[in-house]
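Hello everyone,

My group is preparing for a crystallization screen and wants a predicted model to guide construct design. The compound we'll soak is 3VV. Before spending weeks at the bench, it would help to have a computed complex in hand. I've included the protein sequence and the ligand's SMILES below. Output in structure-token form would be ideal because that's what our pipeline reads.
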Amino acid sequence: MTRSSLTTPPPDASAPAAHPAAPAAGSSLGAHYSRCFGCGDDHPTGLHLKAATPDGVTVEAEFTVGEAHQGAPMLAHGGVLAAAMDEVIGMSVYLFHKPYVTARLETDYLLPVPVGTTLHLRAWCNGITGRKAYLEAEGRVGAPDGPVAVRAAALFIEVGMEHFAKHGDLAAIAAEHQDFEVNP
Ligand SMILES: CCCCCCCC/C=C\CCCCCCCC(=O)SCCNC(=O)CCNC(=O)[C@H](O)C(C)(C)COP(=O)(O)OP(=O)(O)OC[C@H]1O[C@@H](n2cnc3c(N)ncnc32)[C@H](O)[C@@H]1OP(=O)(O)O
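Reply:
Good plan to model first. Here are the tokens for the complex, ready for your pipeline.
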């Protein structure tokens, strides 16, 4: 991954351990919001990412590129692939039971991805310091050990729940996420 200094953890960043209430190894992760473009079942043209955590600290997911995700004819749009990276990274950082938002997302595109391809995604955290979490993801074609088509590195920033209340619709998320811990 060609990563900038902004998404590279500083030496004092600590490697995250699984949160005590993290989902058990092998658990599926449901959608955090039914209308989310990345994971929501009720989004008509969304990515419908299906995710699980193998170990409580990383996320594995699948996304099949559909007609609605084209840029060039029958090839995935780069912005849609970046959205898939953002989503799987977002899912992985929420395993730490704190609300985070994307501040910076860097993406490398290595291979074109035709419509109909299933991308096998993986996201993990390289370190956390203060409010900053440094994360990475990759998307492989056709199988978990297939060729890498996309890589991403990201800086996510921890926010308070008031971020969602002030700028969005906290009630809509909370209604579907009643077990989310506000003070983990
Ligand atoms: C009931 C509710 C439950 C909610 C959770 C449910 C569970 C969900 C489960 C699963 C979800 C998975 C799916 C998620 C989807 C993917 C996530 C998205 O796409 S999020 C949308 C896109 N992102 C935004 O809309 C952010 C917009 N930006 C902001 O709001 C602000 O800029 C924010 C919060 C990022 C920072 O603002 P400041 O005022 O709080 O803080 P400042 O001081 O500016 O930054 C803090 C530090 O970070 C650095 N920083 C900020 N932005 C940076 C950047 N772009 N690049 C480098 N550094 C940056 C700054 O330089 C500063 O560093 P120094 O402390 O001084 O060292």
